[in-house]
Specification:
With 299 residues, the protein is mainly α. It folds into two domains: 2-53; 67-295, MetI-like fold (Orthogonal Bundle). Helix content is 73%, strand content 0%. The chain is built from 15 helices and no strands. The radius of gyration is 25 Å and the shape is globular.
Length: 299
Amino acid sequence: MKSSATTYSAKRRIRFDIWDVLIHLVLIVASLACLLPFLHVAAKSLSEDAYVIANKVYLWPAGFTLGAYQKIFADASILRSLYVSVIVTVLFTILGMFVTICAAYPLSRRQLKGRTVFTFLFIFTMYFQGGIIPDYMLMNSLGLLDTMWSLVLPLSFSAFNLLIMRSSIASSIPVSLEESARIDGASHFRILFNIVLPLCKPILATLSLFYAVGRWNAYQDALFYIKQNVDLRPLQLKLYYLVIQATESFQLEVSQVELSNPEVLKASVVVFATLPIICVYPFIQKYFVQGTMLGAVKE
């Protein structure tokens, strides 16, 4: 009996070890699939044009040079676009989180009458939208074209983030805690700011990252709404135009510097636009993981 139990235990341990190996292999492959393309792009941005043209650059720079970045920074408008992107992203994130919190908290409380109807209306907007043309006509009628607010207001609310926030509050804030606070005379605003928000730091950090990354990477709305005022072009739109100009063998705007290989410019543009988000992410990584798990819990 003892030997059979030992044999069964050994087989079970081997089976679990095999699954652990497979899981680790899948995670390693998925991580490499995300990391290697970025390393390849970074290596191209730091390589000389001749090596890139000859397709001799893989994961390590060949003929190390910072010429592509020097030529990008030679265009003074890029720094201005970087400043616009930072301001727009900060305003967008603050406004988006404010609206999301103000909508998610009452929808998470059971005493709110008609909360199912309100939730349905928010979900409805996730499946049905007016489209680009009605959005442009609305921005034009409101006089928001060629203004910074055209990049902040239209997308500053996400129904998907609202549902995550509502589920997180409903699952992590006990009703008894709110009732005890109301017995002590606390108002809804005091409960929200003194009880709910301090207990929801992980989900707040997660949604803030969602809003910030989404705004930082977006350029299509700026392509439609920012036409005449080139000083309001965000970084992504500015780099988009630079890549097009380099591809068509045009010269860089303002600096009048000509690049010999557009592929090097494209690579340096990708790295330049990605680094700010990469630098921010490590500081909120632990909150991001916790917030993702909390958002997955349903009430």
